[in-house]
Write a structure and sequence with these properties.
The complex is a heterodimer of chains A (about 160) and B (about 375).
Chain A lengths: L2 H48 L3 H41 L7 H24 L6 H26 L6
Helix pairs in contact in A: 1-2, 1-3, 2-3, 3-4
Chain B lengths: L1 H16 L5 H47 L3 H41 L7 H28 L11 H29 L1 H4 L5 H4 L3 H48 L3 H40 L8 H23 L1 H4 L1 H43 L1
Helix pairs in contact in B: 2-3, 2-4, 2-8, 2-9, 2-12, 3-4, 3-9, 4-5, 8-9, 8-10, 9-10, 10-12
Classes of the chains: A mainly alpha (about 160), B mainly alpha (about 375).
Chain lengths: ~160, ~375
């Protein structure tokens, strides 16, 4: 098995494990609490509006906004790590059919693995900081994934070399 | 001559690996069956449930906002409770659709990996049956959660349907872990490492290449769209989600019904925009992954090469058309929705054709095996 292929298959398994362990942590310690908070803050907001208390309504909706922001990113991280892991494994199995040089295949598989790790990590870091750094990590990760996938698509589309 | 010999060897290897009621055959046919039923459920859900349910959610939210404007706290909570119920109904149907398809993908992946699982044929077959039983049990039980509720449940908060769904999930996890264990065992057997030869892994057919390159291109398109959405619309939508709700609540506090109605209309529009973008992104990537997985099974599709290529193109065409027209739903309305449903149907038909091709192949192997047994006997 070539190094590029091994990188994709075992990297994919590792990433899937990371995504599942993270998902388990999230399901046990964060998801229900966040969903509960979202529902409660929304109900509090509307009830406060009904009680003609716009300030309390605004506070509750601010809380809803923060919780929804975090919840969406937690779900995205879990889904993207596992989805990308599955893609890595499947591409790893098919990687012998990519008609590119070994060096290029190695570059593409390393780029895809690194991008698949960094992109959801950047999204996760956004739940700790709203600054530019986590967004930059996510952008670099997704750019790596896009460029690597484009290269692999070209490699798959090329007709097999004779012999 | 050499080429035909190697093809014959590959075919023989593939036939051996696709033995009657063997693990690979069970997982391949069961996996495609799961995907087919999951897609049909999705199509039926999109046509008969999705829009009606969204309208009910909108009506309940509207009732909550109007009740807040009227200072009726009791109706506010009751209406928000209804929103929760409608969302649960919608959520369980989406989960049924998503889990059937995801388990179908996993079944196909495990089918591809079978030669690497270092267990006896009978153990592999048992694992495949356990996987398929769990993979059907979980989505069926999830579908029933909304209808069964807590009836006759021994637990205070979890109903029988949820218990069965969890059991199904545990079976899938156990079977998948079993396969992983088998693969780990194989990697430790140094002598066997080089000896895994498989017709599926070695296939270089045109249909397979079309599906691989087309599938990966779809994944790439889905990813590009996701990146575009994240860069241009995501933060705007998140800000709007808060500001429109704030507008709604301020309107309700000021008893301004017109402001509440205007905010409700904006909220509905925003929900639609988010839903179509997420659906287009997810469907492009999932169809791409499906095409890549199906590329491996082309040696088992017993159809003429020209037909295999046609069905590959039909699958890719439908897979591209569906997310594009889902995105256009906000501009073109029901027309785009109808075209997206037809595109989904094209994917289902192409998948069904490949499934029938695989069934024909298994029939040929089984008939050949019986003839050989007859000649020997």
């Amino acid at each position: 098995m070539s190094t590029a292929r091994r990188l994709l298959i075992f990297g994919g398994i590792g990433l899937a494990l990371l995504g599942m362990i993270y998902g388990l942590w999230y399901a046990v310690f964060a998801e229900h609490q966040e969903l509960d908070g979202i529902g409660k803050s929304l109900a509090t907001g509307f009830s406060a509006a009904g009680a003609r208390d716009p300030r309390a309504a605004e506070d509750a909706l601010q809380q809803y906004r923060e919780l929804k922001y975090t919840y969406d990113r937690h779900v995205d991280v879990h889904g993207h790590w596992i989805g990308l892991a599955m893609l890595l494994m499947v591409l790893g199995i098919a990687f012998d059919r990519v008609e590119l040089t070994e060096r290029m295949k190695m570059l593409l598989s390393a780029g895809l693995l690194l991008g698949s790790l960094l992109f959801p990590l950047g999204v996760l870091l956004q739940t700790f900081s709203h600054g530019v750094a986590p967004q930059a990590v996510a952008v670099v990760g997704s750019a790596l994934v896009i460029v690597s996938l484009a290269g692999m698509t070209m490699g798959f589309a090329r007709a097999p070399r004779s012999g | 001559m050499t080429g035909s010999t190697s093809n014959a060897n590959a075919a023989t290897t593939a036939e051996v690996a696709f033995a009657s009621m063997g693990a690979r055959r069970l997982l391949a046919l069961g996996g495609i069956g799961l995907i087919l039923v999951g897609m049909l459920v999705g199509d039926i859900f999109a046509v008969f449930v999705l829009h009606q349910n969204a309208a009910k959610v909108g009506a309940s939210l509207s009732a909550a906002a109007h009740a807040a404007a009227a200072g009726d706290a009791k109706t506010v909570l009751a209406s928000l409770q209804s929103v929760g119920n409608f969302l649960e109904n919608r959520g369980t149907k989406v989960d049924t659709h998503v889990h059937m398809i995801a388990f179908g993908y996993l079944a196909l992946l495990l089918a591809i990996l079978q030669p690497w699982v270092a267990f006896s044929d009978s153990a592999k077959k048992k694992l495949a049956w356990i996987f398929l039983f769990g993979a059907w049990l979980l989505p069926l039980s999830v579908f029933l959660i909304h209808y069964v509720g807590l009836a006759y449940s021994p637990l205070a908060a979890i109903g029988w349907a949820s218990i069965l769904a969890d059991f199904g999930g545990a079976l899938v996890i156990a079977a998948t872990l079993g396969c992983l264990l088998g693969i780990a065992k194989r990697t430790q057997q140094a002598a066997d490492r080089a000896s895994v030869r498989d017709g599926l892994w070695e296939d270089r057919s045109v249909a397979g290449r079309i599906l691989l390159a087309g599938g990966l291109a779809l994944v790439l398109l889905g990813f590009l769209h996701g990146a575009y959405y994240a860069a241009i619309d995501l933060y705007k939508h998140e800000a709007l989600d808060y500001s429109v709700l704030s507008e709604m609540s301020a309107g309700a506090a000021a008893k301004d019904v017109a402001a509440v109605d205007s905010a409700l209309a904006k909220y509905g529009q925003l929900g639609g925009e988010k839903a179509v973008n997420i659906a287009a992104h997810a469907h492009a990537i999932e169809f791409g992954l499906l095409a890549i997985l199906l590329a491996f099974f082309q040696p088992y599709v017993s159809l003429r090469d020209s037909w295999k290529r046609r069905w590959a193109w039909v699958l890719l065409f439908g897979s591209l058309l569906l997310p594009v027209f889902v995105l256009l739903e906000l501009k073109l309305g029901l027309l785009a929705g109808g075209i997206a449903d037809v595109a989904g149907l094209l994917v289902i038909i192409a998948l069904l054709a490949m499934w029938i091709g695989i069934l024909r192949y298994t029939g040929e192997i089984d008939a050949g095996g019986r003839l050989a047994e007859g000649a020997n006997g």
